[in-house]
Design a protein that fits this description.
Layout lengths: L18 E4 L7 E2 L13 E2 L7 E3 L6 E4 L3
Parallel strand pairs: 1-5
Antiparallel strand pairs: 2-3, 4-5
């Protein structure tokens, strides 16, 4: 699931999936993503994904994969 498909910020359920594909347009990467509502999620944390193309959120365990790597 890419978050780019969500048109409005704050409308997607945060941490609903355990794997997210992101692109270079989503960098710098942070969880929760911009399209996720923040009121029922964890604090924003920035994830270093550039070097390996993969990152895991320490709060919710969501895996992020850089699709265009």
């Amino acid at each position: 699931m890419t978050m780019a498909s969500t048109a409005r910020t704050g409308t997607a359920t945060p941490n609903a999936d355990k794997r997210y594909e992101v692109t270079a347009r989503d960098l710098p990467l942070h969880c929760p993503l911009p399209a996720m509502s923040l009121w029922n999620s964890h604090p924003r944390v920035y994830l270093p994904i550039e070097a390996t193309g993969r990152a895991r959120c320490p709060y919710c365990g969501a895996d992020f994969v850089l699709a265009d790597k």
